[in-house]
Amino acid sequence: MGVGGVSKRIILGRKLRSSQLGETLLPKRIALPVFASDALSSVAYAPDEVFIMLSVAGTSAYAFSWKIGIVVALVMLTVVTSYRQNVHAYPSGGGDYEVATVNLGQTAGVTVAAALLVDYVLTVAVSVSSGVQNAGSAVPFIQGHETEWACGLVALLAAINLRGVRESGSAFAIPTYGFMAGVIGMALYAGYRGLHGTLPHVESARMHIQRAPGYSGHISQIALIFLLARAFSSGCAALTGVEAISNGVPAFQKPKSKNAATTLLLLGGIAVTMLLSIIILARQMGLKYVDPSPAGLHRLTLNGKHLPAGYDQPTVIAQISRAVFNNFTPGFYFVVATTGIILVLAANTAFNGFPVLGSILARDGFAPRQLGSRGDRLAYSNGIIFLAAIAMVLIVAFKAEPTRLIQLYIVGVFVSFNLSQLGMIRHWTRHLKTERNPGERRRMFRSRVINTFGLAMTAVVFVIVLLTKFLAGAWIAILAMVVFFAIMKGIRRHYDRIEAELIVGDEDPIMPTRVHAVVLVSKLHKPTMRAIAFAKATRPNILEAVYVGFEQESTDKLMEEWDQRRIDVPLKVLYSPYREIIRPIVQYAIEIREANPRGVVAVFIPEYVVGKWWEQLLHNQTALRLKGRLLFTPGVMVTSVPYQLRGSEVGKDREDWELQRSRPGDVRRGRIGR
Question: Is the CATH number 1.20.1740.10 carried by domain 59-212+229-304+314-497?
Answer without folding.
Answer: yes
